[in-house]
Amino acid sequence: MGVKNLKTFLITERSGLRHHIIPTVEMTINLPADLKGIHMSRLVESMTEVISDQFRVHESIEELQIKILKALRERHGFKRGEIRFDFEFGYSTKTPVSKKRSWEVCDITASTVKENGKPAIHDVSVKVIGNTVCPHCLANNGGMTHMQRASGTIRVVGTTQDIPTYGSMIEVVENSFSSKTYSLLKLEDEMYVTKKMHDNPLFVEDVCRNILQNARESFAGRKLEMHAEARSLESIHKHDVIAHGRIVTNGE
Amino acid sequence: MGVKNLKTFLITERSGLRHHIIPTVEMTINLPADLKGIHMSRLVESMTEVISDQFRVHESIEELQIKILKALRERHGFKRGEIRFDFEFGYSTKTPVSKKRSWEVCDITASTVKENGKPAIHDVSVKVIGNTVCPHCLANNGGMTHMQRASGTIRVVGTTQDIPTYGSMIEVVENSFSSKTYSLLKLEDEMYVTKKMHDNPLFVEDVCRNILQNARESFAGRKLEMHAEARSLESIHKHDVIAHGRIVTNGE
Amino acid sequence: MGVKNLKTFLITERSGLRHHIIPTVEMTINLPADLKGIHMSRLVESMTEVISDQFRVHESIEELQIKILKALRERHGFKRGEIRFDFEFGYSTKTPVSKKRSWEVCDITASTVKENGKPAIHDVSVKVIGNTVCPHCLANNGGMTHMQRASGTIRVVGTTQDIPTYGSMIEVVENSFSSKTYSLLKLEDEMYVTKKMHDNPLFVEDVCRNILQNARESFAGRKLEMHAEARSLESIHKHDVIAHGRIVTNGE
Amino acid sequence: MGVKNLKTFLITERSGLRHHIIPTVEMTINLPADLKGIHMSRLVESMTEVISDQFRVHESIEELQIKILKALRERHGFKRGEIRFDFEFGYSTKTPVSKKRSWEVCDITASTVKENGKPAIHDVSVKVIGNTVCPHCLANNGGMTHMQRASGTIRVVGTTQDIPTYGSMIEVVENSFSSKTYSLLKLEDEMYVTKKMHDNPLFVEDVCRNILQNARESFAGRKLEMHAEARSLESIHKHDVIAHGRIVTNGE
Q1: Neighbours of A (≥3 Cβ pairs closer than 8 A)?
Q2: Which of A15, A98, C3, D210 has its CB 3.0 to 4.6 Å from that of D176, i.e. a possible disulfide?
Q3: Taking CB atoms and an 8 Å cutoff, what residues of chain D touch B179?
Q4: What is the CATH topology of the domain spanning C2-250?
Q5: Which helix (H) or strand (E) segment is C107 a member of?
Q6: Which ranges in D112-252 belong to alpha helices (H)?
Q7: What is the ipTM of this complex?
Q8: Domain boundary assignment for chain C
Q9: What is the pLDDT of residues B128-147, one digit of tens each?
């Protein structure tokens, strides 16, 4: 039981980088057996107070979500509490040849679950847009092939100390496509990206495998359950093609 | 691995009632260990052939999905195959007082999963729009309260013989709200619905409980895992309030 | 003033082809000066009665919309009445080489406006998915280029006698892309489509121009205002590229 | 011709209030007769450079959009250029009785059009969520009525000096509903809002009229074309009810 589709406003700052974020929030609790009903306003009140206390700047979404669940527990008993934010996240990159600054935006879902007597568990997904190029068609069609926009998602589940930064998760996905995509591409960049795509043809199942392989390397030493999804908006079809995968690392 | 966001076209007829349906399809398979890649076109081909063979009229979505997975197995080995249709479903009702015919539409998701050596399992959700009325506010505010549009969902998981009809699932949800809603309401109907809402104030958690209770009665004797979700588009807030529940019946 | 986001259910049959359609409806009227308020139920009642009278099969959406506006006028005065249906429309095609049947679905918006003393005017848009291939990149990059899923829309405005069939509008758009797309493609079809794309590279502005040119030819002799829109889901960018155009034909 | 569905990242600061915004951007130009094609990258480059020059903080969206169109003109001739941002905008309010801080979010669309030899024209829409209560039902049903979530939109078109602030547009719409809505409501606030709704029953056409009346008063002395739209998510129907209106003020 809880609230969904609630929009709020918050600020994070880490390593000098400040982000204002307008997440869509879902916040739910499971009641202990002795409680019959829920005081819905206490959910929103806990969140609002933590977020806006002195218009505070928070170190991270994970830390903020833990604080909100703690504030809620002081107001309202629960067996299990969960808070989830869906939001857009902006970052900057350089175009590959002309080295101009380009702004990119990806989709992030960040949840935290707190059960009695257990550490908080985070569940974070980062979805980035890239592309795929059909290797089978390239190999059998005199160098001609079809390519398309694609999306890749890495999802990690773990404790606060094991969850990687959004930046590192974005990098893991971006490097798994036939090529990264950019908001801005000058002519020389466009030629470079087109060549890179042809040099690196990948099915969605390859992108999916790359995401998991890149994540395993980048997040070595962390104890995480990791899921990957790749999806291509086929240029020769009206439908999409998808692939899923999953690995668990034991932190060694 | 598979296809998603594919739209197709099919016809069902049961008890003399014919439905043309344009589902959005997701169809995925898990490969056996000895198969490296997937022939994506065989998924779509299996579906297209079964659906359009002589432009055939099918008895039910469940029967059709089983046929498609069987046709796929003859073409392409898999450990686990799943096909899911999302579609809108129209039905007619009578307005409560004026007894005029009114057309209503609900959202249905119907999936079938086939694993080697196991019977096909269906997973069907029906989502209907109704309303909720705040009982707490009504009791404490001199007869004044707030009410709002709401949605209710019943999801059932079971074998072909245990899955109920869409019509009976729609009825289960419609009867769980403060009142049913209608596309058409003459003045006398509007008065009736408004009075009914005030006589039957319900939180989302009440609607959720009603759905499970109604389903238990209506689907007695069936072996089903059943999930309910209720969601109210609060009129005093910009966000929604949700509740979830789940029961399992053993078919006795 | 009127209703929006209403879903209903209707049947059309023309040339032996029957379509069941679940449109999302918007129906609005402008009141004459002497009327203060609107009886909202009369809008829905007019529509419901015309649609479901004996579960009648209608010849066309245009004819049905005119009937609904006429039925409404008998119940409720208006200066200007408009009814709009948004719906998905299924049709069949053959794959290009293997000649298998493939089912395709497109998006249609069909409106009719009736003003006092003027003939009914229809405004119909058909949106189909295809693809584009960058000609500039192909010419300057040793035969390598980028391509992507695209959509094309033809919109026509005119009287009942001048509005073309949905089928002819679909054809106009499909033939304007670098290649048509298909739900089903066997290997030989995929090779054919890939080659066709490379042989026929088009910017979105070319697709837009093609749509208008094809429409001018296909709809010769009709008096129509025609709009085209093309949009490509760029494979090298995260954003889309769009082009618009417009012509008016005088029916000669 | 231009780009659509592009996401970027920018910062505004006015009266000490800083906003980080992630707009979805549409940017289009009409070419002069002597230009055949468009250099699409120059659109994005103009925007990126203006937005991110020294990671600059901009005074307003309107001022920023004019700068982007000016930067584009230096790179690429056009007869008419338009840039549009769709984004979410957060603001804080106090709950009506308990006087707690509550965060609210609304939807804003802000466009600027520049044609040769004419001043830049802005077109700004602010959409806020509130509620409506049926006056007719309240008057005829012993004090019982139905109410529902609603949205109200004010759209203003004018030159830079005449466009009001987002804050004043939000206020115009919020004060036009049966009651404002809040993310947070303590029990005493909920009672207050419920009573206010019953004291102030309004049809969507009343909300629409209120928006225009409030705008006329709040924006007196400005030369503006103003449009209002109200939409209620009916609690007794599955569909919505809408009303539109329009006034033009001459700045006196």
Answers
A1: B, C, D
A2: D210
A3: 236
A4: Urate Oxidase (3.10.270)
A5: strand C101-115
A6: 135-140, 166-174, 187-199, 204-218
A7: 0.94
A8: 2-250
A9: 999 999 999 999 888 899 99
